[in-house]
């Protein structure tokens, strides 16, 4: 079906799937970490510049 290069083709698809899966997992884990850090900063009273000033 895939010819003499079938193993190479399937191996490339497998490696690509693993890399894409690892990148997706990394993005999810990093996003949760950043969200947690932002929540901790906001709990301590640190606000984002884009939030504007409350006393004006």
Automatic annotation (TrEMBL):
It is a single-pass membrane protein. The chain crosses the membrane at residues 6-29. GO terms for biological process: cytochrome complex assembly; heme transport. Pfam families: CcmD. It is found in: Cell inner membrane. One of its GO terms (cellular component) is plasma membrane. Keywords: Cell inner membrane, Cell membrane, Cytochrome c-type biogenesis, Membrane, Transmembrane, Transmembrane helix, Transport. InterPro entries: Haem_export_protD_CcmD. Required for the export of heme to the periplasm for the biogenesis of c-type cytochromes. Belongs to the CcmD/CycX/HelD family. This is Heme exporter protein D. It comes from Ancylobacter dichloromethanicus.
């Amino acid at each position: 079906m895939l010819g003499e290069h079938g193993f190479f083709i399937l191996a490339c698809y497998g490696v690509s799937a693993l890399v894409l899966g690892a990148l997706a997992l990394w993005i999810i884990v990093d996003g949760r970490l950043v969200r947690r850090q932002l929540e901790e900063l906001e709990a301590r009273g640190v606000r984002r510049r884009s939030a504007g000033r409350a006393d004006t």
